[in-house]
Request: fold
Amino acid sequence: MNYPFTTEQFFNVFTNYNQAIWPMQIVAYVLGLLAIVFGIVKIKSSHRIVTGILTFFWLWMGLVYHIMFFTTINKAAYIFGGIFIIQAIIFLIFGLIKGKLSFGFNSNIYWIVGTLFILCAMVIYPILGHLQGHGYPNAPMFGIAPCPATIFTFGILLWSDKKVSLSFFIIPLIWSIIGFLAAVSLGVKEDIGLLVAGVVGTVLILIKNRNFK
Reply:
């Protein structure tokens, strides 16, 4: 597959991005941990906290990563950025404001797989990247880069104790395919997990939705 940029330019974007936004990498992990805590502990506003964090991640990636940085080597990133912003708006309106999502601890297969996806996004993904030679700062980082954030999103959605509307996961699914095809072509082998999360996560969400009327 031909791209309007080289592999070196692709990783240079991450280098410039990570250096420019420091210490947002730490903030992203703090937010991720908060999403985990309030995804497990069910209190009155827990669903709003979790979906608010997802909203922030997708808005940040759309505006900052795609539009401000990735467009320097690929003008299609304006489209990607717009799509990510749309997903952020969906989480904002239907998840945060209207409360169409809620979360809580469960020992079923959906919760277990969701936990594995979350662990993959926050821990396994950066370790695999480092082993592939994609260490910080020239690497996609959790919460602020599309691929690990998408894996995390599927993990959190599998924690939902309500029916998950298609609007919450269709864009993440599409990105899991686009991101996988592009990243693997560019040597980001850790993004195999992105495709797994997108496909397996979608199938499990659809099966789980059948349990809700």
Q: What stands out?
A: The first helix runs from residue 7 to 21.
